[in-house]
Amino acid sequence: MSEKKIQPFHLAFPVSDLEQTLHFYRDILGCETGRSSDKWIDFNFWGHQVVAHLSPEEAGKSSTNEVDGHEVPAKHFGLILEWDEWEELAERLESENVDFVIEPYVRFKGKPGEQATMFFLDPSGNALEFKAFRNKEQIFAK
Question: Where does the VOC domain start and stop, copy by copy (predicted)?
Fold first, then answer.
């Protein structure tokens, strides 16, 4: 397969409270804001456009699947960061007393695809996963 240029993605998701969402994504995660209204807010999510839409009846709904002994939210989004960025984010989230669905840990230690991962919820109950790989060339390793 030829190498493709990585393009920014766009993701829209439901939230129950725009002020709490603004605080979480801007002040805790460090995302800049873009356009907004009284019904939605655009965030610069590490170069990607994510949009929080006010929809309390839809926010935070997800089932889980068992993965490595953890109940992983089936519906989640996030990023793959550099290892040091991932560690810094984990420390920042801990200092902000963010509750983790899955505490920061390393999967597949010493094996292909070794990765650090953590899961947490935004104020509306939407699950986010942030990862880092020891070797990014092994992101899709089997």
Answer: 7-133
